[in-house]
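Risk register update: the risk that structure generation would not scale has been downgraded. Supporting records follow, first protein first.
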Amino acid sequence: MEAAVEMSCVYVLHESVDWYGPLDRALTQAGVPHGEIFLSSGALDLTQPPPEGVFFNRLSGTAHTRGHVLAVEYARAVLHWLEAHGRRVINSREALELAMSKTALTAALGASGIRVPRTVAAIGLSRLSEAGRRMDEPFLVKPNRSGKGIGIQLFNSADELTAAVDSGELGESSDGVFVVQQYIRSRDPFITRCEMVGRELVYALRSTIGGGFNLCPTDACALPDSAAQAGPRFRIEQSFTDPIIQQYRAFMQRHDIEIAAIEFVVDGEGRAYTYDLNINTNYNQEAEQRAGISGMDAIARFLGRELARLETPARLVRSGKARG
């Protein structure tokens, strides 16, 4: 592993240059010393201690689509190393596993009392038809590890799914696991994405549905024809209040997640179903400019505070004001 900076600072663990850029600029503007650890492939000397600092894990579930097929395994190794040495890690190994696996996330959310769509895991493409026959229709099929709506398909019947499997129309899942999930018909023309930093709500983002399953808000995710949509696709609500936020805060606390975006959809009877969480949270620049708020600035401030908290005992020791 090669880190860009050796001094005590904030280290950002990631694998996307496009998605790192806005955070890099926010940290620079906030005066927070920082470097990056690029998670694609590398050599990690486990006999040496990690550098001092705060380590922010924001690995993306779509890393494999950018050619970084070993990013998750690399992240696991780095996080084991960091945690073994007691380093301050934001979004730990448990956070990584939940963000990289829809099966793990759905099980954890449901066990925490958060309503989720009915979900059946299919271990291997050959078991998809069996999983589909267990579901009410229509239903969604998703790769276990993905993002940006990649690989998500809507099926109206189990026979339709079987035909797609038999014809080879379905793509592969990076880990061989698929989820077959209840399709929630949204009461509203949007889904809600709760942007959480330090387990506190920064804002809720309303993402207009109807243009496919790619609801990633960052400009790097924009589809070629998205500009043709009438009106803005993303709208921020800063005054959003809902009991679900307390559930999300408790869930994040329980599973050692500190910075994340969590998405839910409301059905026709007003019931909220939570279906996704990501730790590489990105923000829509146009929506933020309209609202006069910046998620990356919120992250930069939080990381700066955590670094200052970490360095305070060290400064006291160096000045002789602390006693061992």
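Supporting record for the second protein:
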Amino acid sequence: MLPRPKKRFGQHFLTDRHYLERIVAAIDPKPGERLVEIGPGTGLLTDLIAARVERMDVIEIDRELAAALARRFPPDHVRVHEADALEFDFSALGAPLRVAGNLPYNVSTPLLFRIASIAERIEDCVFMLQKEVAERMVAAPSTAAYGRLSVMLQYRFAMAIAFRVPPGAFTPPPKVDSAVIRMEPLGEKRLRARDENLFERIVQAAFGQRRKTLRNALRAVDLEAALQHAGIDPSRRGETLSVAEFVRLADASR
């Protein structure tokens, strides 16, 4: 019998065996890998992954679910961390990490920014989340879905939507469709801004009021000269710039 889902944690438990198995196939876990599951919930996905690896770690914020998981799995096989993944110290798990999970819809965007911050420690990620968020992650410039999340993730990861999951696969069914997405770090040779903190500030400012032109949106960070130096028309909007153009703008600002 499934526990009662808690609204404050945005819990929707994936219970459809077909989709559980498809997610495991997308992860393709192997013995010896450092695999971490975020939000294992009732442990249905954990069961299938644990059957294929020597050991794994799971991060669960819900105290009751974490305790149930700790009772269910031997600690030398599945190590349960009762913690908030937004604050969890992933460095304690070593590297490289393979990260998977059904991300709670109410905190999926902050969790994705958290994952971006540790991209250097990650081998790959397979996440299930709201389809709308997945579409924002892979969106191209000059589309409605393209925004800060798109730029900051595409700066670090190659991403693709693997498949979609209908509401009926969950208990209780969410009011939206879901999608499974694969993320792979671009590696050491990826395009990098010389000052990544400045790059992030520029991206955030550019999308703070997305209908504004770059000239107006970036006025607070005084980038008029940098726009000219980077060869970017200040009358454009931030939503039209590619990741490479944001990097060029940041580098021209130094």
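The beta strands are 13-14, 34-38, 56-60, 78-82, 97-102, 122-130, 157-165, 170-171, 178-185. On this basis the risk owner (M.S.) recommends closing the item.
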